[in-house]
From TrEMBL, chains A, B:
Keywords: Methyltransferase, Transferase. It holds the Pfam family SpoU_methylase. Residues 128-267 form the tRNA/rRNA methyltransferase SpoU type domain. Gene3D superfamilies: 3.40.1280.10. InterPro entries: Alpha/beta_knot_MTases, Ribosomal_eL30-like_sf, rRNA_Methyltransferase, SpoU_MeTrfase, tRNA_m1G_MTases_N. This is tRNA G18 (Ribose-2'-O)-methylase SpoU. Coiled coil: none annotated.
């Protein structure tokens, strides 16, 4: 349903106003997705009610006049009652408080939080799980979800210290992956390890001080890879008790980005 | 040599003023490195004349009063005539035009450009080369250098369309790696492939449409991995003639970041 907007203060697009500020305050379960690639991915995962398999719901779009034609195929395939607001670029810039380069915004409603146990119960006989602790950087969170989607991970577990995968920047960096890969939160690393053990899923913890190398590790059918922050890494009690894997690096430069590390690890564990 | 600075207009620190603008205009062969980790790496690679093995030269430091004590070990080991400017945080913020979070800046002089052939001639019987084309994003460039350093790559080749690895943000994202990994430019992919062939180094081109998978590829002793941009990828004539490798991904999400891809590929080629 195309809705032309010519007034930045039009109440029908109030949810889009001042996107940047909205990111910083409570977002009441809403998410904002940007750009054509993400919108195409999201649209391809919607059922007739505008919901993804994860239960996220697309509420409306806001696109610039220049983009509406390019997106005609997506717009035509959306549920007919879904509002597609079309505005001139200048109105659009004023609506969202800063220029949106690609002129495409999607507003959605995130599904309520899901229990980790519920998602773990759904894993099949072969499963690949990503577990992260203390990932507070949205670039890294987005990168981890992008890699999780690329290598077919079934589930991402987060501790409470990690940031929100549905924050606008994390969605953008993930190229939409954080909207399609299931995730759930547990309190901390100990809770994640206990839940994974209860779900008969082997945990390997990545650490520069790991006792085995990644490339020497043959993954079992159900495996979870646990990643900590780049600086402090995983807690000592975890590294003391978990099976630990290292990625050997050149002397004097023992440093990989955590999202890159997740890509290297998931590539190996996926066995592709 | 500690130099206390209390006036943002002090001519002795004119090179640090308005760092952001300087990044955008010609930088006359200068580079700017930020933060303790990068400074420690750079300092550990300096000879008695303040030069790295690549020929980059450290000209001076600018550190906030709060950081000078923490960096005493580095400062003490620098060539004694090298100026270390110490300023209060407020003066520092005014000097550089925006807040430098960690209060540490290093100004250097980049070595003159080196011929790719000169660096290729120095490769040993085992060598790992990274070649990139059309990488215009400094985050990606920094990430590629970080991975090159982590996996002991001997050399990075860039085409003329790629951005400067010594741009401030690229140095920061590389965690200093772009200051220590040798690199050289050639005009384009064809020139890189010709130079690598002349140097008896096998080239593999990464592409989602690659004819072999990365994991099935056994690297020869001297190997170069060629990466294009995320969107358009490498030119068709290159993919038609080169040996091509793919990283298989999940259906419906055929997307990896190019820096992450370089990490996965270098991890495999390094054989660690």
């Amino acid at each position: 349903m195309i809705v032309s907007i010519s007034d930045p203060d039009d109440p029908r697009i109030s949810a889009y106003r001042d996107v940047r500020e909205r990111d910083l305050v409570g977002r009441q379960g809403r998410f904002m997705a940007e750009g054509e690639v993400v919108l195409r991915l999201l649209a391809s995962h919607l059922n007739a009610h505008g919901r993804t398999a994860q239960g996220h719901r697309l509420l409306s779009l806001l696109v610039s006049e220049g983009q509406a034609d390019r997106l005609a195929d997506i717009i035509g395939a959306l549920p007919p009652q879904l509002p597609v607001h079309v505005a001139g670029q200048q109105v659009m810039d004023r609506i969202v408080g800063f220029p949106i380069h690609r002129g495409i915004l999607a507003l959605g409603e995130a599904r309520p939080a899901v229990e980790a146990g519920t998602l773990l119960d759904r894993l099949g006989p072969r499963a690949l799980v990503v577990a992260v602790a203390g990932i507070t950087n949205h670039d890294n969170m987005g990168g981890i979800f992008r890699n999780a989607a690329a290598f077919g991970a079934d589930l991402v577990l987060l501790d409470h210290a990690s940031c929100d995968p549905l924050y606008r920047k994390a969605i953008r960096v993930s190229v939409g992956a954080s909207l399609i890969v299931p995730f759930a939160r547990l309190a901390d690393v100990s809770a994640m390890m206990a839940a994974l053990e209860a779900a008969q899923t082997s945990v390997v913890a990545l650490s520069p001080s790991g006792r085995e190398t990644l490339s020497s590790f043959t993954p079992p059918p159900r495996v979870a890879a646990l990643f900590g922050t780049e600086g402090p890494g995983l807690p000592a009690h975890v590294l003391a008790t978990a099976r630990t894997l290292a990625i050997p690096m050149a002397p004097g430069f023992d440093s990989l980005n955590v999202a890159t590390t997740s890509g290297i690890v998931l590539h190996h564990l996926a066995g592709v």
